[in-house]
Amino acid sequence: MPIQDIWGSKNIKTGRWRILCAVSPGYGITDAGILHVREDNTVDKLPWVSGRAVHSVWFNDPSFIFTSGSGILRWTPLGKWAEMGGADVIPANTRSIRGIAENDFFVVSDFGHIGHYNGVSFRVMQPNPDILFYSCDYRNNVMVAVGEDGRNAYVVVLRQKAY
User: Fold this and answer.
1) What domains appear along the chain, each with residue ranges and CATH number?
2) Can you tell me the distance from the alpha carbon of 11 to that of 17, in angstroms, rounded to the nearest whole number?
3) 60-70, pLDDT tens digit by residue?
4) Mind listing the pLDDT tens digit for each residue in 108-157?
5) Where are the beta strands (DSSP E) in the chain?
């Protein structure tokens, strides 16, 4: 199964790393899911939502895992996936998710959508509907996304103003 994305974070309380991989056969949804790579190098699969693709995984606190793919999903401390946003938020496949906190992350998608979650709601912008975004990262109040339109490569940089 192709690994689409990988993310890891250290649990501040235990000092242990949690490493997760988003696996999906490209555009397919068969056997999609989240792999957990343990410190002893064994791998197990987290429960996943049937019929949903997963392209990216991100978390700050291992109790709250966020994914993108067929919508934007959140793993809760209750051990369930909850949808945060589907076609009503971003009407396209979401490709990458990165953030700095559970109330401050970005999602990028096909057809040029960039969504920012502020802990309450998403703000979505579409600088160019021809861009297919592949990945993004977000640090120090700067979000960078990369993609292409079939002819040109794009790098989009968003800077958050300090108030």
Assistant:
1) 3-159 (2.130.10.10)
2) 6
3) 888 889 999 99
4) 999 999 999 999 999 999 999 999 999 999 999 999 999 999 999 999 99
5) 3-10, 17-23, 33-37, 43-46, 54-59, 65-69, 71-75, 81-85, 94-101, 104-109, 114-117, 122-125, 132-139, 142-148, 153-159
